[in-house]
Amino acid sequence: VEDPELTAALKDRYRAGPVPDLAQVIHVDDYTEPDVIDAYVPHVRYIHLDSAGPLPGGNGVTHDWERSRGITDRAREHGRFVILSGGLHAGNVAAGVEAVRPDGVDVESGIRSGYDVYSQSLMQDFVRNATGVEQP
Question: Residue 132: which residues within 8 A CB-CB, separation 6 or more?
């Protein structure tokens, strides 16, 4: 969900029953500030940081991880969890995890060896490198 009003409406829809854990996708660009999450905090449990790009996912483009770290710190102040994505692959996921300190990572194009061909060895390398970063 990418709209604060839609996110709130989805949450209101589930008031009668179990409320799902919603995630808010934030496309990080040169103008994204940490307070961007403030509109979503009452409605979501997860903040999903992704790169702005022409496709909704799988663009293979990274973004400013220092900017993402600021958003992550703000999200943690509100008890929210952060998922990092955007151009991650086995060769850079450790640096992304170290810089941003997310609660999880998401990968799409970084584990493909061709159009819609997922590589088991790329997946294994990605997981090994993503989980090999020592946490504070």
Answer: 94
